[in-house]
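Workshop exercise sheet. Pairs work together: one partner reads the sequence aloud, the other fills in the structure field after running the prediction. Swap roles for the next sheet.
Pair: D.N. / O.F.
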Amino acid sequence: MIPLLPYKRLVFESQSSKEEIIRRLSVEVASRRRRSGVFERRAEKFEGEVSETGFKISRVIRYRNSLLPLVEGQFLPLVKGVRIEVRMKLHTPVLIFSILWLSLVVVGAGAVIFQIISTGKFAGAMFIPFGMLLFYYLLVTIGFGVEANEAGKLLSDIFEATDDQVVKRASR
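Structure field:
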């Protein structure tokens, strides 16, 4: 099955303490959203909230991208160190729009398939709903995927404490 709504999971395991991980992450997270100009450089890599149990952040970018992942994570204690489970997903308004838009396109594709089966006729315009699905899939896969990969690299740099740190990546 090809997922049409992007989602990514990352799991980091660090031998550093939870307090140290929270401290390092907090340095890289601005506590409030603010507009920044195209030419303005911000010291923080993310903006959002970091707490004792986890975080909810987005990457700071100098351009608009509705597909910028919302990065949520939680800290889980290990015998020695901490496990950080990260989920990246679309922001809720973009997710709702995507579901509604995809629903309409899927209904259109279903109508085309029904038309082909019932009449046996096929016209070039019948490709439109399938082209729209392909366009959406490529747009979301590339737009979300590039940003999710960049956020993952930045988080890896933040959570990386020693050479013994284990980074596991699992995405779907």
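Discussion prompt: The chain has a mean pLDDT of 85. What would you look at next?
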